[in-house]
Amino acid sequence: MTKPRDPDALLSAYLAVGMEVLPDRVVDSVLDEIHRTRQRVVVRPSRTRPTSRTALAAAAIVVVVALAGAFALAGRPSPTPSLTPRASLPIVVAPSPTAGTTASTAPGIRRQEDVWIATGTMRTPRSGHTAVRLNDGRVLVAGGARGNENDTSAELYDPATGTWAATGNMARPRGGFAFGATLLSNGKVLVGDGKGAEVYDPNSGTWTATGRMAVVDPDGTGHWGLATMLRDGRALVVHDGGKAEFYDPESGSWTATRTLTPPVDIPTPVTLPDGKVLVAGGEDTARDGNRAALYDPATGAWNATGAMGSPRLEHIVVPLLDGRVLVVGFTSRVKDGASSAELYDPSNGSWSATGNLSGLNNPHTATLLPDGSVLVVGCGAGVGKGKPTVSAELYEPTSGSWTAVGHMLENHGVACAATLLADSRVLVAGGSNDTGALASAEIYDPVTRTWTTAGNMVTPRSDQTATLLPGGQVLVAGGQNVISGLFSPVASAELYDPGVGN
């Protein structure tokens, strides 16, 4: 057990294992000690989703997330485009493997000359699915689109054998932006959409319906909302329209809480170090799009907390290591807003401008690095017709400045995935453009601030999930590829091994 008064060791344990797999008492100890010595340390991902009202609906990206996905307050899965790629503008904060472990590949599937290694094939082609790394290192993949319909099936990937196994069916088909998955503090996985929710138990491999949700649209057209883990282990879900409720994994029941008023279209909740939940933006109008509110789980009340300088919708939200919150870009009718950024300071409830990205409009992914800086990538802003453009920038919280960090080697179009590796580098892979899905991948090195090729994936794909495994490899699963002239879901999966060819 880490000594309770050793903040450096606590922080190292936090980054090495990930908050989502630490016992509650360790999480509380870490948060309390770092709060006293380093002014509120927190690492947690958030995501937003596209709507049919915007021109970016087909271009939404996940990473993984992966804060898979990507990372989290107790129970929140690491984004791996652990979250649904097309459902998110991801933040990736991934845990490092346990000290002393090395990247390894399942027996019989590793070839030393390969960087990308084909692994077992999923039983079902999937796109718009979700992937969650469980506490035992296995990866749960569920739902997704099959043609024009969503799927009920789920399966488990075992890194030790490189194989997939069916693990029951969900009660109803789920996929796309209305589908979310959250790793709970008890190791189970909560999934849901506008029509209800259920829980997966990895010990029994079964799905069980939760109690009836307090907020369900009678016509079935509602949005699931976004879930964020509270300090007490409950999951708060904030729906479109401002209605909110929380799920208690101990009782298996839902309880409605007060409504956020006026409501927002796409709320983006993030849990702060003091346990309160910040919701900022969510509309593209000056009237509602720049406001922010705090939810207090102790009282169940929402309170206004300052206003952003610009209205924001589908923006990226990044909780920083010092407790402040960075918001970047948005999709809005307001001109010149896609490159702007602001900081929220929970100590005084105020917002402040923090510079503009110098060359990126409408950034696609943001990755919180272990040193506290934030890498923002525009997947579609790489080499365009032979003319390199700024495609990645680094935000330094201490100076509040943005710096271009080289030109990416490829134009990844849209729907690429970014994953924070165990050695602090960032992998960007896949995507799609006018020619189809892409197989290209590259690595950002925060030490040299340069990009190098990471070879090509075995299968071109976009909208894939990318999950960091305990051994340091990245599992890339599903997505879309052009088959017979049409974008279609794929069942293939592959591993990226950062220890091979680099």
Word description of this protein:
With 502 residues, the chain is mainly beta. The chain has 2 domains: 1-38, no CATH class; 39-496, Kelch-type beta propeller (Neuraminidase). It has 2 helices and 38 strands. It has helices at residues 7-17, 24-38; strands spanning 91-92, 116-118, 130-133, 139-142, 145-146, 149-158, 163-174, 180-183, 189-193, 196-201, 206-209, 226-229, 235-238, 244-248, 253-257, 269-271, 277-280, 291-296, 301-307, 316-319, 325-328, 340-345, 350-356, 365-368, 374-377, 392-396, 401-404, 417-420, 426-429, 432-433, 436-437, 440-445, 450-456, 465-468, 474-477, 480-483, 486-489, 493-496. A hairpin with a 4-residue loop joins strand 26 (392-396) and strand 27.
> What's the domain count?
2
Q: Mind telling me the CATH superfamily name of the largest domain?
A: Kelch-type beta propeller
Strand order of the largest sheet: 1-24-25-26-27
Helix percent reads under 10%
**Describe the biggest sheet?**
5 strands, mixed
The count of helical stretches stands at 2
In the CATH classification, which architecture of the largest domain applies? 6 Propeller
Structural class by sheet pairing and helices? mainly beta
Beta-strand segment tally = 38
